[in-house]
Amino acid sequence: MRLYKVLFISIAILTIACTDNNKDKTGGKINLYEVEAYRSLFPHNAIDAIGVKVVNQIFEGLVKFNEHTLEIEPAIAASWEISNENTTYTFKLKEDIKFHPNQIFESDDQRKLTADDVIFSFKLLCTHGNNNNGFHTTFKDLVKGATEHYIMSVNDEFDGNLKGITKIDNYTIQIDLEHPSPYFLYSLALPFCAIIPEIGYKYYKESVLIGTGPFQVIDKDLDQITLEKNQDFYRKDKKGRKLPYLDQITFHFNKSVTDQIVAFANEDIDILYKMNEEKYINKYTELNLNSSINLNNLSTPYMAVSYCGFNLQDSILKNKQLRQAINYAIDVSAIRTAIAAAKENEDAKVSGITPTAFEKYNTSEIETYAIDVDKAKALLVEAGYPNGEGIDTIELDINKGRGNNLIIAENIQTQLKENLNIDVKVNVMPFSDKIDKSKSGASSFFKAGWIADYPHPQNFLSLFYGRDVPGKEEDWDSYPNTTRYKNPEFDKLYEKAMRVPLAETYAYLQEAEKILMDDAPAIILWYGKNQILTNAKVQNYPMNVMGYIDYSKVWLKK
Fold first, then answer.
1. Domain co-membership, 327 together with 195
2. Helix count and strand count (H, E) for the chain
3. CA geometry: angle at 77 spanning 76 and 79, to 5°?
């Protein structure tokens, strides 16, 4: 006999209402399951959602996002001043911050964070390396001397100087920009700009896991990583209580959705990502589980998009008319219907690469690719491939994910064969391999997704900025522009949006996105929705439209 008793507390706001009736919020452990493993925990290489989630608990930058409003607030920096020209930023560091304890430190005093650690970390960010995916979207062509430093580092020719970053004293640094940027503080809040101890990097290299964040690593293997409360963490709550509240967080990796449902029902884990009550009940019933737990059902819009990208340097897919034909030949709504996980997005109007979660960003004038097989066939003729003749099999690379990617790929495979007589081969691989393949240009067609690094449409259009595509003589990957899209008119508008006040950026970006969508470098599938279930004992879980998570203020009701 199946016992089914679940109380859902529905919450569709950005924060969880809670009181301070529980005066003792400290203590307790949280267990989390993830469907795949992280790609890297080195801050400069943290480009996957799971890795970023973990890195943000271990490392910190000068500033951070508020976990509810997403406004920029101090982290390592106590304060900062910006010049009248908006090109000089002076940061005053907090003087009571220590790196996590580790054997490499000969004394407690050596653990203290100073301006030297900040300068070292930023110089490292401006140094070429296979594990550096952050430079191009943060300091390149923005911080004075950063691009020169990076180029010279390719051949180890640089002298170590970076003229745009200056140490004023042990707890003050100055950063000089080539031009004003409305996004600079956002960039400093990313994991790429986390502060790493110089001694730690020299000892551990890219395996360094020593930060100043609320949690420190105590155990790690291929299947899990356990983080423990940083006893020296400097932040406190509004009542002066030390953070974080939790004693421990353990992330378990490579767990299927079924594994997660069962563990959640048995209270072995405390949080279910990408899950709402309807999906949980359906799966719970299907698995014939026995459980009696109280839940929080949390939901917000999501600054996230799923898409399939084309490699525009591919000998076949560089053809614009062909890419447009493929877009018109795909019935995205049919794919959504086939995927239970995407059904909540069926009513969402898909336009460009930028999700509708940006309320004031007008995408109504951006033309979409609704299913139109006749138009697709006509474009295929214009492209020089009537009835698909002359097109070799196109390979679509996907990672397994939550199982939905294979459904997406098989639907695309079937539709392109039926509608355009184009053969598609589906390649399933680990997430890290798919990322590496798309970055290097070895992937012609790939399933991808993007969650906002910061709350602005520019972050989504940055995926197609031509400046980030390496030339033939340059020995580095194309990231985040993995489609290798280049259009001078798009770049011109995008660059204008990088040099005007934040309030004026939308108009330029909207025009750029019109050009982008006409060029069809990708098939836009749908926009996400941030849906999470937690055990009701989990309090103050930070919900926001970016899915940004800071566990320092999460606590367990006793």
1. no
2. 15, 19
3. 155
The answer to the question of residue 10 being in a domain is: no
Structural domains of the chain, count? 2
248-292 pLDDT per residue, tens: 999 999 999 899 999 999 999 999 998 877 778 777 778 777 767
175's tokens = 């950063």
Q: In terms of residue numbers, what domain contains 475?
A: 303-527
Q: Are strands 172-176 and 63-65 parallel, antiparallel or unpaired?
A: unpaired
According to DSSP, the β-strands at 172-176 and 215-220 are unpaired
User: How many Å apart are CA 119 and CA 45, to the nearest integer?
Assistant: 19
Is residue 90 included in any domain, yes or no?
A: yes
Q: Name the amino acid, one letter, at 308.
A: C
Q: Are residues 357 and 468 both part of a single domain?
A: yes
Q: How many angstroms from the chain centroid is the CA of residue 202?
A: 27
Q: How many CB atoms lie within 10 A of CB 429?
A: 15
Residue 546 lies in a domain: no
Q: 51, 177, 181, 55: which is closest to 122 by C-alpha?
A: 177
Position of tokens 């430079």?
135
The pTM of this model reads: 0.90
Q: Which residues pair with 74 in a beta bridge?
A: 63
Sign of CA dihedral 385, 388, 391, 394: positive
Domain limit, last residue, from 154, 184, 212: 212
**346 and 481 both lie in a single domain:** yes
Residue with tokens 């999906």: 279
Q: Is residue 44 part of a domain?
A: yes
Could you tell me the CA-to-CA distances from 297 to 276, 539, 542 in Å, in that order? 7, 12, 13
- CB atoms under 10 Å from CB of 554, counted, come to 25
At 281-331, the pLDDT tens digits run 777 778 777 767 888 999 999 999 999 999 999 999 999 999 999 999 999
Same domain, 311 and 459: yes
The tens digit of pLDDT for each residue in 167-203 reads 999 999 999 999 999 999 999 999 999 999 999 999 9
Q: Are 146 and 126 in contact (CB under 8 A)?
A: yes
Q: Which letter does DSSP use for residue 508 in this model?
A: H
Q: Are residues 203 and 319 in the same domain?
A: no
Residues in contact with 143: Cβ distance below 8 Å, sequence separation at least 6, in sequence order: 122, 126, 162, 164, 165, 175, 176, 177, 178
Residues 84 and 185 in one domain: yes
Give the end of a domain, one of 166, 190, 212. Answer: 212
DSSP string, 408-468: HHHHHHHHHHHHH---EEEEEE-HHHHHHHHHHT--SEEEEEEE-SSSSTHHHHGGG-GGG
Dihedral angle computed from the Cα positions of residues 213, 218, 223 and 224, in that order, rounded to the nearest 10 degrees: -50
- Rg of the chain (C-alpha set): 24
CATH number at residue 44: 3.90.76.10
